[in-house]
Amino acid sequence: MAFDGLTVANIVRDLKKELIGGRLYKIAQTEKDELLITVRKAVENGGGQRRLFMSSDASLPLVYMTDENKQSPMTAPNFCMLLRKHIQNGKIISIDQPSLERIIRMEIEHLDEMGDLRHKTLLIELMGKYSNIIFIDEDNKIIDAIKHIPSSVSSVREVLPGREYFVPDTQSKLNPLECTKDEFMSLISSKGQPVFKALYGSFTGLSPVISQEICYRADVDSDKSAIALENVECEKLWSAFDEVMSLVREGKFTPELVYINDKPKEYAAISLTMYHSGDDSDYREFDDISELLTHFYSEKNAVTRIRQKSADLRKVVSTVLERNIRTLDLQTNQLKDTEKKDKYRIYGELLTVYGYNAEPEATSITVNDYNTGKDVKITLDPTLTIAQNAKKYFDKYTKMKRTAEALEVQMKEVAETVSHLESIAASLDIARQEEDLTDIRRELIEGGYIKGSAADRISGKGKNGKQNRSQKSKSKPFHYISSDGFHIYVGKNNYQNDELTFKVANGGDWWFHAKKIPGSHVVLITEGKEVPDRAFEEAAALAAYYSKGREQDKVEIDYLKRKDVKKPGGAKPGFVVYYTNYSMVIGTDISALKEVE
Questions:
Q1: Is the per-residue pLDDT at 518 higher than 50?
Q2: How much is the pLDDT for 433?
Q3: What integer pLDDT is reported at residue 462 of this predicted model?
Q4: What pLDDT does residue 170 have?
Q5: CA-to-CA separations, 291 to 285, 288, 335, in angstroms, rounded
Q6: Pairwise CA distance, residues 184 & 382, whole Å
Q7: Would the pTM of this model clear 0.90, i.e. be above it?
Q8: Which residues have CB under 8 Å from 534's CB, separation 6+?
Q9: By three-state DSSP, how is residue 553 classified?
Q10: Helix axes 386-430, 311-337, angle to 10 degrees
Q11: What's the CA gap between 589 and 597, in Å, rounded?
Q12: Are 358 and 386 in contact, with CB atoms under 8 Å apart?
């Protein structure tokens, strides 16, 4: 599942075919590390427009062509403005990939302020946490980059305006497209590591999955030590390696997406034949690598972005939750200390009854406890009378009793806060779009978890302290159709949970929730019809999937008629009670359910 050199080679081939001769019509920086460039294609390439998406996000670097647009910020960032100044309406004259590296070079021809013809280069480096988008001039000097890398961050290469650009060190790896048979044999046979690791550790652009595929095509055990390979195995490995490299040199790509148990697992720019015979695997071929990448990464990219945008909220929830859990633990220990309060009350009563038997200035007295029939030794303060000692024990009992009563009230409040915060954390985990975060921000503010300037910063309030109209939530609950045609709704947050349960659902509809763990309210709309068992199971699976237990194999789900679900007065959003219910244990697989967009 790596964005390797072969994938980049496939993209470069497609970019050359479609974008060479085209002009940069629009340049937008949709995120701090993303560009979306609209290209007016040359007439000889069919004309029209095509968008080029590029991301240098450390966790998900990507480049592909798309027809989809994306909203840009009202004020363009400085890097975007710089690109517009220099290469807006510029002509793409070449696109290439150096040495099968995960780098794309796009040379652009444009006119400067004086009307003279100039050339600039836009480089996209797709190297994990080192990914970047760099803009350089004709002298190979960096004009700017979407990420500035000073020497304090990297001692190998600074990426700053004015610095000379050079390709990062590839750790002495060879270019597989230019490697000879003798070089290959000599290099691989000297590696004391598994064959597939020796391959991707020795050549640029190879990923573990491509290395495994080469071993599979050669019928060589990929885990066998490369230094222990027989001559015939080395010959077969070279043949498979050369076969794959020939496909790359000739541009004969066959983008393929592999599914394991019906879920996308791996992809490559060539056919992954090692997965073609598996009982639990399937594959789909694509005509276009950009189509494959869009299909594979669109949801993952959205999830990554929403996690970045919700980072402040997650930090708030995590910090307050940890503080309340510590408070609850402390209160639990304090309450445990008050469990011996009744002992002091009994001591006071026994001293009142038997205290006259005590010797003057005695430090203790042993009396028979009429509650248990056993003798009890009671410590005395010799400076006090028996009555005063009894009062001392009664006072201690009264103080501990009051402490216990106060702690029980406080612990109930803290436990409710912990439960509330855990439900908010669960809501953050299932948020898909920025709109989904609006209600969660509001809930944190109204709950008092965010105060003062932090609330203004995180909630999007205006200068007058009021919620901006533009921040009004457009988030909607998840909507599914069961296999039998019943509508099932899932709340994304506590406000939606309350609305679904008490406004959308009728008394005769069914309500589902994971037992004793944070999760979404799920309502199954019956419309007065009899509900088959399969619909109950599918609604329960949704309640399991959209809960904190989604990573478990099975989750216990409570379900009951909506009319039996009650909300106590003054309860926090999403909090309900019920006293009679059915239960079932169900898995979290919801792949058979159809989601309504």
A1: yes
A2: 80
A3: 44
A4: 57
A5: 10, 5, 61
A6: 95
A7: no
A8: 482, 483, 484
A9: coil
A10: 160
A11: 19
A12: yes
Say what the pLDDT of residue 181 is.
95
**Identity (one letter) of the amino acid at 260?**
I
Can you tell me the distance from the alpha carbon of 337 to that of 350, in angstroms, rounded to the nearest whole number? 22
Pick from 480, 519, 9: nearest CA to 252: 9
Those residues whose C-beta lies under 8 Å from the C-beta of residue 121, and which sit 6 or more positions away, are 105, 106, 107, 108, 135, 136, 137
CA distance 242 to 585: 53
Rounded CA-CA distance 268/476 in Å is: 36
How far lies 563's CA from each of 498, 502, 506, 510, in Å?
Answer: 13, 9, 7, 9
258 residue type, one letter? V
Q: For residue 48, what pLDDT band results from cuts at 50, 70 and 90?
A: very high
DSSP lists the bridge partners of residue 121 as 107, 136
The closest alpha carbon to 275, from 257, 288, 290, belongs to: 257
CB 498 within 8 A of CB 574: yes
Task: Using the predicted structure, report yes or no on whether residue 324 has a pLDDT greater than 50.
Answer: yes
Average pLDDT, the chain: 90
CA-CA distance, 99 to 175, in Å (whole number)? 6
User: Length of the chain, please?
Assistant: 597
Structure confidence at residue 171 (pLDDT): 63
Q: What is the pLDDT of residues 568-594, one digit of tens each?
A: 998 999 999 999 999 999 999 898 888
Q: Which two tokens stand for residue 3?
A: 């964005």
The 3 state secondary structure assigned to 513-551 is EECCCCECCEEECCCCCCCCHHHHHHHHHHHHHCECCCC
Write out the two tokens for 163. Answer: 């610095």
Q: What is the mean pLDDT of residues 351-357?
A: 89
Give Cα 539 distance to the centre of its chain.
24
Distance, in Å, from the CA atom of 542 to the CA atom of 546, rounded to the nearest integer, reads: 6
Burial (CB count within 10 angstroms: exposed 0-12, middle 13-18, buried 19+), residue 149: middle
Q: Give the C-alpha separation, 259 to 264, whole Å.
A: 4
Over residues 433-482, the pLDDT tens digits come to 888 888 898 889 988 888 744 444 444 444 444 444 344 557 899 999 99
SS3 of residue 404 by DSSP? helix
Whole-angstrom distance, CA of residue 334 vs CA of residue 362: 32
Chain position carrying tokens 């230019």: 178
Q: What is the DSSP secondary-structure string of 468-508?
A: PGGGS-----EEEE-TTS-EEEE-SSHHHHHHIIIIIS-TT
Residue 297, Cα to own-chain centre: how many angstroms?
Answer: 13
**What one-character DSSP code corresponds to residue 200?**
H
Structure tokens at 61: 């670097």
370: helix, coil or strand?
coil
